[in-house]
Amino acid sequence: MTTPNWTNYKTVAMDDLGLSPATISGEPRVSLKVLAVQPDGSGECGIWSCTPGERTIVFDHDEFCHFLDGEGVYIHDDGEEIPVSSGSMVFFPNGWSGRSIITKTLSKAYAGR
To answer: Strand, coil or helix: what is 54?
Structure first.
């Protein structure tokens, strides 16, 4: 068995998904690399990155995030603010909705189910 591993996330070739369709301000561009998917499709993990800007966000699944680089804040619809930067970890439950304001290109490793 070969164990998937990546020694430096910055060397992983990302797929450019373009301008976020949920943009409020700025020009947040999203990049993504799915690294592994459950055989039944019930979960995946990967690396995600977004350039500065503000956008609306709704999680339609549970997602654990470990932020690798950058700076920003997630603001829940109820006003709760979650600042994130390198080393931050956040669990977003299914249905979480609000906004993200990214001030420095933000990258994260994520696992969703």
So the answer is: strand
